[in-house]
């Protein structure tokens, strides 16, 4: 028997694709290739209000993470509480309080759980990627736009993890294939 492990984000994407294949609607997720870095990038909407963010596609990663160090603002951001369902789904490795910033902010909350954030371009990992949920929208015209009001992702506060990203890229969308 062969088993496959898929992150929740990939499973949801497959389910949505199956729904759209059975309907007349089409979900387009444009992928671009950065000319200088040769990295593949997608653009999604995130936060409230929705803003476009660019994400590096990583075919061997574990989760979607975004940079929260440069003023992540959203009225719907919610950190995952320790031992919550969100922490279990994300396979959290630790719980705790923020000790990195003088005040609580997205990516630095108290009584929250963490996973490993990774940047495959520099072969680097960060053990304090805060699990959170916020709005995520994918798709473009022509086609449909799908929005998840409580999408689980991780929030990093380490500028070193942004090294070697294409210009404007603020995180990673990972798929285990």
UniProtKB/TrEMBL annotation:
The keyword NADP does not apply. Residues 1-24 form the signal peptide. Residues 40-172 form the Xylanase inhibitor N-terminal domain. InterPro entries: Aspartic_peptidase_A1, Peptidase_aspartic_dom_sf, TAXi_N. SUPFAM superfamilies: Acid proteases (SSF50630). Belongs to the peptidase A1 family. This is Basic 7S globulin 2 small subunit. The lineage of its organism: Eukaryota, Viridiplantae, Streptophyta, Embryophyta, Tracheophyta.
């Amino acid at each position: 028997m062969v088993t496959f492990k898929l992150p929740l984000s990939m499973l949801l994407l497959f389910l949505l694709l199956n729904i759209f294949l059975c309907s007349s609607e089409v979900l387009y997720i444009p992928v671009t290739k950065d000319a200088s870095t040769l990295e593949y990038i997608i653009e999604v909407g995130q936060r409230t209000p929705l803003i476009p963010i660019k994400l590096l596609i990583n075919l061997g990663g574990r989760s979607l993470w975004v940079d929260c160090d440069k003023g992540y603002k959203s009225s719907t951001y919610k950190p995952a509480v320790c031992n919550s369902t969100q922490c279990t789904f994300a396979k959290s490795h630790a719980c705790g309080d923020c000790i990195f910033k003088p005040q609580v902010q997205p990516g630095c909350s108290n009584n929250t759980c963490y996973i490993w954030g990774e940047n495959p371009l520099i072969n680097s990992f960060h053990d304090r990627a805060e699990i959170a949920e916020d709005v995520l929208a994918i798709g473009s015209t022509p086609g449909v736009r799908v929005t998840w009001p409580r999408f689980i992702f991780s929030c990093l506060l380490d500028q070193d993890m942004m090294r070697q990203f294409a210009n404007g890229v603020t995180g990673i969308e990972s798929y285990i294939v």
